[in-house]
Specification:
heterodimer, A: mainly alpha, MetI-like fold, 14 helices, 1% strand, B: mainly alpha
Chain lengths: 322, 285
């Protein structure tokens, strides 16, 4: 699409003519004009992004080498890598990483399995499939905090729907304070997260399924492949790009989970649902240790930037842009 | 054969039922609870359908009386804050983001690819990594609790997202159209405003919607940058009240329902754009 190389003479002449009318003194080449226009169009966004993204991330990186208490009149002192080494020696940090990886792994795998199943279900066009697809949009659009609050109330020990339901089914004899059970809390957060994210994965995979050629599937059916074989050997390989997109986006987001944990459990019971983002938040804004918080957050960035690299490699197709 | 087809359809239909129940039951319970009184809510066994449904909880949010507790009052204010902030963010992102996206996709210049990749890459930086310096500067400039600080902070995720969506859309605009305009003597900016923008309206609509939903959903920055009742956005207002022991729990549930209504309505009205946007890899987690 390069206009510079492929431009046919009339384009250049007319552009030059137009240009010479407006700027009789300075004769800019088409290329120089393009460069100027590009910077002009980019300028507002670049200023904003440099200000709210590049500068803060750099600043956070620098802060991670300081002891930076948040109190009044407390000076920052340069302490080199101490924030990082202290963090790496702290068992709490490793427990938190383990918990965050548990959350990420369990919720992303469930999302993928259920999402794929629902996508395939819609694709099989059962009665009311349009209604099912329409319904999936609703949990996806409900704000994360409302979703979290809703599940917190469902799990409530005093009036929650979960207790009410289990009691009416005769499965429990008295109400259980679900969110205070150390081994349950994280799984309940995962269940709430899944309600919000499975529809997203299902919608992505369903729209990918809809673009696949039906002929292959039909040909395989004629050759005697059963539905199961057709799914595993034809649909699934063709869906790989869409699955990768869903997988990576969800992994990155699950690894930095904060909102839903904050609202459902506040990190409790007994710190059993503290994730890495939550630990960063606590260090920076509750414990008054911004240096430690910066080091932690930089670690999250580091992980996600690696993910971003993979992500862009998979999604970005330069031949369409240059 | 006819029988086999029928049983297949019936089986698939039976499979959709648990999915639909999983989607709707939690929401229906929330809505039902928001129409109950406090006493009805605490009944054991629970009242799945409120025996005396009332709109009282909603009325108090829209027309807070003098006697109303701070829950309904806060809600009305925070709804307004959320609308203002999300609209401002969306407007700014659409205007400057679409200009940038066009430059990156269709105007050849030297650092094109590098800049495009860096902007896409910033989408992966989590908010926690940016918030400390932003917070320090905002405190120094005494901008904490002002809507402007949230509008600026939200740019860090909304703008790269808008640029990404718009650049994906501009790539689908046929290059021949632009070349034809160029031959007719149109300048780059002329092409952008007279040829490309008018046919990119669907892309602009879907970007507007995705960015609005993203800004409406945002919680972390709002939690850090606001501390007064007058400055909170809806997600923070909900979180604050859920966290403590609240007397007016049904009022909070009505608030939760109200907070979900605008994004759900927007998403359902523009359903078509979401499905095509998701297909293009547009993603709001």
């Amino acid at each position: 699409m390069d206009l510079r190389r492929n431009a046919n003479p009339p384009a250049i002449f007319s552009a030059m003519a137009a240009n010479s009318k407006s700027h009789p003194k300075r004769q800019l080449s088409l290329h120089q004009q393009d460069t100027r226009t590009a910077w002009l169009l980019l300028a507002p966004s670049l200023v904003v992004i440099l200000g709210v993204t590049f500068w803060p991330i750099l600043s956070t990186f620098i802060l991670s080498f300081y002891n930076a208490p948040t109190g009044i009149n407390q000076a920052r002192t340069f302490i080199g890598l101490t924030n990082y080494t202290t963090m790496l020696k702290d068992p709490t940090f490793w427990e938190t990483i383990g918990r965050t990886l548990y959350f990420t792994f369990v919720s992303v795998s469930l999302e993928l399995i259920l999402g794929l199943a629902i996508a395939q279900l819609i694709h099989s066009h059962p009665w009311g499939w349009q209604y099912l697809r329409f319904s999936l949009i609703i949990p996806w659009a409900v704000p994360t905090i409302v979703n979290g609050a809703m599940w917190r109330w469902i799990y409530s020990a005093d009036f929650g729907a979960l207790n009410g339901l289990l009691m009416q089914l005769g499965l429990i004899k008295h109400y259980i304070p679900w969110l205070t059970l150390p081994n349950m809390a994280m799984n309940l957060v995962i269940l709430a997260d899944i309600w919000h994210t499975v529809p997203f994965v299902a919608l992505i995979l369903q729209s990918a399924l809809a673009t696949l050629p039906e002929e292959l599937n039909e040909a395989a059916a004629v050759d005697g492949a059963n539905a199961f074989q057709r799914f595993w050997q034809i649909r699934l390989p063709l869906l790989r790009p869409a699955i990768l997109v869903a997988l990576i986006v969800r992994t990155v987001e699950a690894f930095r989970v904060f909102d839903i944990v904050y609202i459902i459990t506040n990190g409790g019971p007994a710190f059993k649902t503290i994730t890495i983002s939550y630990l960063t938040y606590l260090n920076s804004f509750s414990y008054g240790k911004q240096g430690t918080g910066a080091a932690l957050s930089f670690l999250i960035s580091f992980f996600t930037i690696i993910m971003a690299f993979v992500y862009i490699r998979l999604l970005y197709r330069p031949e369409e842009n240059q | 054969m006819h029988y086999r087809k029928f049983s297949r359809n019936l089986l698939l239909f039976l499979l959709t039922i648990p999915v639909l129940l999983f989607i709707y039951l939690p929401m229906l319970w929330l809505i039902s609870a928001s129409l109950s009184t406090q006493v009805e809510l605490y009944a054991v066994p629970p009242n799945w359908i409120p025996p005396h449904p009332t709109l009282q909880n909603y009325m108090e949010i829209f027309f807070p009386s003098q006697a109303a507790s701070s829950v309904p009052r806060t809600f009305a204010v925070s709804l307004l804050n959320s609308i203002k902030i999300a609209s401002a963010v969306t407007l700014i992102c659409i205007v400057i983001g679409s200009l940038a996206a066009y430059a990156l996709v269709r105007v050849p210049f030297k650092f094109n690819r590098t800049i495009h990749l860096s902007i896409l890459g910033t989408r992966m930086i989590p908010e926690v990594s940016l918030v400390i310096p932003l917070f320090i500067v905002a405190s120094r400039l005494q901008l904490i609790n002002k809507p402007i600080v949230l509008i600026i902070a939200y740019m860090s995720f909304a703008l790269p997202f808008a640029i990404w969506l718009m650049s994906a859309y501009f790539q689908t605009v046929p290059i021949e159209l632009e070349e034809a305009a160029r031959i007719d003597g149109c300048s780059r900016l002329g092409i952008l405003f007279r040829v490309v923008m008018p046919i990119s309206v669907p892309g602009l609509i879907s970007t507007t919607m995705f960015v609005f939903l993203l800004a409406w959903d945002e919680f972390f920055y709002a939690l850090i940058f606001t501390s007064t009742l007058a400055s909170k956005t809806v997600p923070v207002a909900i979180a604050e009240f859920v966290g403590r022991y609240v007397v007016n729990i049904t009022g909070m549930m009505a608030g939760g329902v109200l907070a979900a209504v605008p994004p759900v309505l927007v998403a359902l009205i523009f359903q078509r754009y979401i499905v095509s946007g998701l297909a293009a890899g547009a993603v709001k987690g």
